[in-house]
Write a structure and sequence with these properties.
Elements: H1 4-33, H2 40-62, H3 69-75, H4 77-91, H5 98-115, E1 128-130, E2 133-135, E3 137-141, E4 144-152, E5 156-163, E6 174-180, E7 183-188
Antiparallel strand pairs: 1-2, 3-4, 4-5, 5-7, 6-7
Length: 190
C-alpha cells in the first residue's frame, strides 16, 4: 500500500500541472479568438496544439476511477475552441463574436486617439499597440483610415477601418463589416 501512495501523489501532481498548463493555453486562446483574423501558419499551429490539449484532457478525464462529469464538461471547451478557430479562419472574424466585440469596445478610446494623429508617410518601423490590437500598418485612403493588424487566411490582411461616410458599394478586394459608429472590420484580399 505504501508503494501505491507515491504513485497517486505523482498522478495528482501531474494532473494539477496539466490543469495549470491547459488553463494557460485556454487563456492564450483568448487572443486569437478575439483578433481581427488568423493567418494560415498561426492557425495551423494553434489548431493543432488545441486538438492535442483536447485529446490529452479527454484521456485524463476518462481515466479516473469515478468518472467525473466536471472533467468531461471541462473537456468540451477544447472542441468549442477548435471549432471557433476553424470558423474564424474560414470565414474571417465576425463583429458578432462576443470576444472580438469586447476587445474592440475596450480598445475603442485608444483607436479613436490614434486616428487623430497624422499617419506616417512610411510604413511603421515596428508594430504599435493601439488598445488591445497590435497595429502593423496604417493606411490613409481617400476618406478612410485602415489599421492593419493581422494576416488572414494565406496572404490576406485584416484590421479595422475608420470611415465617417457610408461604405460605397462595389469595393474590390476588400470586405468591410460594420462594428459601431464609423468603425468597420476589414478583410483585405491580396
Amino acid at each position: 500500500m505504501d508503494n501505491q501512495r507515491p504513485t497517486r501523489q505523482n498522478s495528482g501532481t501531474a494532473r494539477k500541472g496539466w490543469f495549470i498548463v491547459s488553463t494557460c493555453w485556454l487563456l492564450f486562446l483568448l487572443e486569437p479568438l478575439s483578433s481581427t483574423g488568423l493567418a494560415f501558419p498561426f492557425f495551423v499551429v494553434t489548431f493543432g496544439v488545441t486538438i492535442l490539449f483536447g485529446v490529452v484532457s479527454l484521456i485524463l478525464g476518462l481515466t479516473p476511477s469515478p468518472l467525473s462529469r466536471f472533467r468531461i464538461l471541462a473537456w468540451l471547451v477544447y472542441p468549442v475552441a477548435a471549432s471557433s478557430l476553424v470558423l474564424i479562419f474560414v470565414s474571417s472574424q465576425s463583429p458578432a463574436n462576443p470576444l472580438f466585440r469586447l476587445r474592440f469596445q475596450l480598445s475603442q478610446p485608444a483607436l479613436e486617439n490614434v486616428i487623430h494623429i497624422p499617419a506616417p508617410r512610411k510604413p511603421l518601423a515596428t508594430p504599435i499597440w493601439v488598445g488591445l490590437f497590435l497595429i502593423r500598418r496604417i493606411d490613409v485612403n481617400e476618406s478612410e483610415i485602415q489599421l492593419i493588424s493581422d494576416g488572414c487566411g494565406i496572404v490576406d490582411e485584416c484590421g479595422l477601418v475608420y470611415r465617417r461616410d457610408p461604405v460605397p458599394d462595389g469595393r474590390h478586394k476588400t470586405r468591410v463589416k460594420h462594428l459601431a459608429g464609423p468603425w468597420y472590420h476589414l478583410y483585405s484580399v491580396f
